[in-house]
Amino acid sequence: MRALFLIFFMAGPAGAQTLRAPAVLPSIGVPVVPLVVPGALAPAPRLDFSLKPTLVLPTAAMPLPQVQAVAAPKAEPLPVMAALSDAAEAVAKDAQAGRSPDASLSAAFDLSAPKRGGAAVDLSETGTADTGGLAKTEGLRRTAKDAEKLDELQQRLYADGKRSVLIILQGMDTSGKDGTIRHVFSAMTPQGVEVHSFKKPTPEEAKHGFLWRIRKALPGKGKIGVFNRSHYEDILVPTVYETLPVEEIEKRYGSINAFEKKLSERGVVVLKFFLHISKDEQKERLQERLDDPDKRWKFSPEDLKSREHWDELQAAYEKVLERTSTPWAPWHIIPADKKWYRNYLVGRILRETLEKMALRYPQPDFDPKKIKIPD
Asked: Is residue 65 one of the residues assigned to a domain?
């Protein structure tokens, strides 16, 4: 199935159910899929897309309540349908207030919705080539408009100098991490953006804890930091290639969640994007690199080795997304087969995040009216 999914939770009594849900959210054409909470809900509800919509939402915004993802041996049913009803009412109020219908994509793609014991994420059922019903020309127009706004917001962040933003980009090879950085952040003032790439640890880095090199690269106050791959490689690689004991890998999940929580408490806003590409699209992009002399430098035989472990890597990513998407550091699954749509989503979600920070230029500690510039 190739479709853009708005992931939400549905809870109810045990037993199979057929849930009537909108086939498409009207503003951006987002199909809806349930993210099943295991444990108390068995078997999982079925979503019937053949039915006519019985729930109409005027916009794509669905600000579901967010709570910490907690591992619990016996999960209790969640009153999510009531939460969805509240969310729909809030959306209606936004529409009546005249707010932009596409001004809440961060909520639509945020995985940190309520969950206990880990909510199932199935990447094979999550679209990679979706565009949300948006035409490419319109998507490019919106991206250009967002770029102008991002430049202004980044200047406010820099001038304020009290908080910072950390962007984490993860994804399979060729998913577009470099391209996202080039297109989304190119309009910003270079002195306010710091980009770091993380590959196999150097001998020096390997002597320290796995978060040591990450802490060294954190953005300073007033800066936007972008990680091209990150500390999540230190879970993904040892999981797939079995280079660490399972117990050590398990500890790293807790270490990462605690680390990101402390960042949030220190005023660092953490946004995490998983650029979701299909295996077929990856093959096309790898072949393009081989065929184009100007892109051949990007190709590495190591890319083929990781491709051999596609299924294992997808499973590892699913577990990472389930266990580390939190209210203070949410994951967003971004369809990445269409480069222009990938760039639009990341840029728009970043714009929404910065706008919510209510950034202001600092006021001078002097009276400008009393200052006279000499001739």
From this structure: yes
* pTM, full prediction: 0.71
Residues 359, 189, 103, 86: is their CA dihedral positive or negative?
negative
- Output the DSSP codes for 297-357: GG--HHHHHHHHTHHHHHHHHHHHHHHH-BTTB-EEEEE-SSHHHHHHHHHHHHHHHHHHT
Same domain, 11 and 107: yes
Nearest to 325 by CA among 103, 128, 170: 170
Identify the bridge partners of residue 93 per DSSP, sorted by sequence position.
none
The model's pLDDT over 236-254, given as tens digits with 9 standing for 90+, comes to 999 999 999 999 999 999 9
What are the distances in angstroms from CA 317 to CA 109, 236, 310, 324?
Answer: 16, 7, 11, 10
Residues 239 and 147 occupy one common structural domain: yes
Q: Measured between alpha carbons, how far apart are the two ends of the chain, in Å?
A: 70
Question: What is the distance between the alpha carbons of residues 198 and 175, in angstroms, rounded to a whole number?
Answer: 16
**At residue 201, does pLDDT exceed 60?**
yes
The Cα-based distances of 253 to 168, 235, 236, 245, 248 in angstroms read 16, 8, 11, 13, 9
pLDDT at 110: 61
Cα-based angle 34, 36, 41 (whole degrees, multiple of 5)? 125
300 and 212 inside one domain: yes
Same domain, 12 and 148: no
* Residue 41: per-residue pLDDT: 33
Return the H-helix or E-strand segment holding 55.
none
Boundaries of domain holding 108: 1-120
**Which tokens in the block code for residue 215?**
């802490």
Residue 329's beta-bridge partner residues?
326
How many structural domains comprise the chain? 2
In this predicted structure, the answer to whether residue 89 has a pLDDT above a threshold of 50 is no
